[in-house]
Queue: 3 jobs
Job 1
Amino acid sequence: MKSVSVDKYLSSIDPADRIVLEDIRIYIHDLVPEIEEKISYGLAAFYYKDKYLIAFGAFKNHLSIFPGGLVGRFKAKLAGHKTTKGSIHFTASNPIDKNIIKEIILFRKSTIDNN
């Protein structure tokens, strides 16, 4: 799917999944107000100081967050969610705890700030 904006991307998603991703989107903006949204590789991506911070997407059977290679660092806290090397899978009925999302985003933000 080729989308021109995060709004357009979200409008094409199943309503139950859209609610979950829109909630995460708002949360990301609350944590990092100066975030910039883009569509990257067909996903809703969020950049901070022109650096990749996090992305999310909707797929046929799940939603995913792409924390930029940090899955291993947070794997112990992700019990109950399927993970790959670069993604965390979840569903509307089994969402990711926002505290984990917060930890990931603040860790990535501090890495960007310190480089």
Job 2
Amino acid sequence: MATEWEFVKLEHLVDPDRGISYGIVQPGGPVGDGVPIIRVSDIRDGRISTSEPLRVSPAIEAGYARTRLRGGELLLTLVGTVGEAAVVPESLAGWNTARAVAVIPVRKDIGSYWVKLALRSPSVRQIVDSRLNTTVQATLNLRDVAELPIALPPQGERDAITHILGTLDEKIELNRRMSETLEAMARAVFKSWFVDFDPVRAKTEGRSTRLPPYLDALFPDSFEESELAEIPAGWEWGMLSDLAWLNPEAWSTETRPPVINYVDLSNAKLGRIETITAYAQEDAPSRAQRLLRVHDTIVGTVRPGNRSYAFISDEGLTGSTGFVVLRPQQTKYAELVYLAATATENIERLAHLADGAAYPAVRPEVVASTRIAKAPSEIIESFLRIAGPLLAKLAASDRESKTLALMRDTLLPKLMSGEVRVQARDRCVAECR
């Protein structure tokens, strides 16, 4: 650690008019048009997920004005997955937090991002781990949060470190947004063609399909009745099992590799694999059994409403038995299998069919029996020429983000400890010792 750096307790770096607080203790049942709040599960890898917030009664939230967010605060998880930190974007002004999330209104002259970096440094993480109460589940007290020592190098050096690590974080965030856009585009085309049958409906109603002539000509201009539901003329209803094998491979005691690169349910969310945990063979969880290949689709069967699913684009991964693995019978259908299995309508169907009190789940066969509309090969191949490149770009973006995150996580402890010194933006003045 750089000996000339100043260290200040976190409580002295916050807005004195607000202080460090935790959020709503008893949020009550969800309210459809209530005030959204951020929970521990919404904070992961330095960012806040806003896809499925819990909404609480405005009357309950009114009693917690102290933690009502304005934008710019630092959030820190206190229970369960302790130590996850994220800066609140301005767009979340008016939201609040749950009891298990601390709101830290860092002074503007210090900056929430700097404190976030400090909280991720090994020295501070070690202190946090030593202060945890683990009687029931890991819990960190606000008193201990307030006393955490935050390194304050000279302003110029602090700005340089913030610039270096912030640039990497900004690029990772940009890639994430681009990936979301690419996937949304692929899903929109899938839903239009294979769920809502928009081109066929347009033709039956005498409207333009707004497709290029070569695509327009592929779609029929009428529907046919079937035992399930109406379907475009010349199409037929099928199931995912017509296109994909179910759970095709699993490790045995004899074949398990020395290192298991494990993907659990909590680490695959809305199409992205957020974290891969490497275990020695003898330490891997018993659920680490599903052998995954590139082009596989995984769908969580435990609490399917949590939307734990992903398209596999990396070799050497092992999935939890809480996933169903769908392997395309023909590689060219990989994107179609993924988009069909994880369409919003199908995930909602699985969530509705899940049973069990503590951990509602569905059998793998239920996923494989998901109904799909089987179009003529010319339409499917045209769709794949659109969706394939989109998902390929998405996978490339995700791989780049993983490389950038590794670079960031390697640099962070060296920069935050003073092992690597900087005086001006992007200029190191001492080598790693």
Job 3
Amino acid sequence: MIRLRSDEPTLVDELGRLRDPDPSRLNLVRRLGDAVAACDPPQVFGLHGDWGSGKTSCLYQLHWYLTGSCPQVPAWTSAEVPGLRKGGRHGNVTVVWFEAWRYQHEKAPIVALLHEIRSQLPWHSKAFTKAREYSEVALRGALLSLEDLTKHIGIQASKIQEAGERWEQENLASRLPSHMIRQHLEEALRTLLGRKRDPKGDRRRLVVLVDDLDRCEPETAYQLLEGIKIYLNLPSCVFVLAMNQRVIEGAVAQHLAPHELGQDKKPDERARVLQRRAREYLEKLCGHIWHLPFPRDVAGLLGRYLSEEDGSSALEEQAALCAVVDRYRTLPPIPRKIKAYANLLLRVRDYLGERQRSGKDSTPDMHRWAMLSVVFTYLYQFHPELYRLLADRPLPFYQQLRDWCEGKEVRAERHFAGLQHLDTAMISDTQETEALRVPRYEPVHHDPAADDILHVEALVRALGPVTEQETRDYLLP
């Protein structure tokens, strides 16, 4: 039975962000959590990572580290997540979780955020229920104050359906000035969080973890950032924004385009100016941007996703595949893409391995079997447009693919347009050595996570010529 890997966020430390392999380095979650708990609010932290890099899982782990729990995965216990046993060490922190993309169609996303803050603050906890009666009244009044303040910012999120345009016409004309809204919000949050400092003397703070900001429509993302800057730049608030920084900068640039620049500049110049201004905007709002590192051991991570195979032969095949991936750097270092590739290998494991184990395969050598398997599965998973050409004319296309990988002039041929959009990962050159023209290859330093890189280029060169039977044997069903 095939057991495919789930792509759901997890508290399990698959990527070494809780326990760094290097003992001299503090783990990422602990460093970020300590900075969030000890900073002087207001502060906005950014957690940058490409799509699929594990930002949501990192926010889960940060939530656990700060509070000792993670409501998004309530079934987990500290025994199941040993790297997080010190969670909840920061008594001055109250955490609110906000999934931005769920509210991307709201006219005022900051209103939805305020309602989430109101609903998630633990005003009914034991500490509050033991308070004297007038304190209970004050707490309830603070919660009602948050509800009331949303009316002065935008449409009340909890009553959108019944209020509609009528509410907007009747109420928006009497907006409070933004500084008065901030003052009321700060007073309400101080009441709800408690005015006393923790035993270490740190000020109590609300930490808002914002997930999936980069999945929102550009205008929604911009409006939420503006709302945080205008209304929640408060002495009790700390934000952590999980985002693909390039996507958010693009959203900001798209908003600024009709406002910041006229039509007197050339398109390239306009793009550069907008990109610079968008980055400056984000840097002003978000003073601390942390970058999620790429996995250090891509082949090792692939091996873990392929673990628990049946039988020694499967383990031998798995080791051979991972060795090829490691030697030729054939996978983009994005955890979600590595996991998806592992699921493909699990699906076709028996198909690829049965002929090899039975001796019927045209390439009985294990290393060559692994090289061919990686080339064909890589094209199938990451460049389906090339794989379709390969499936249509296996040997002719593969020979042209090999010529492209060796730097030969095939890129301009009309019938080989499938590779026009790809960048080569190597620069080929030749030199005279004992009357022989010996090719040399120097790496080109692209973004390793880019989609327009053919990561198997070096592997195709090392594999050398293939037979027509081999090209047909390794086409996937």
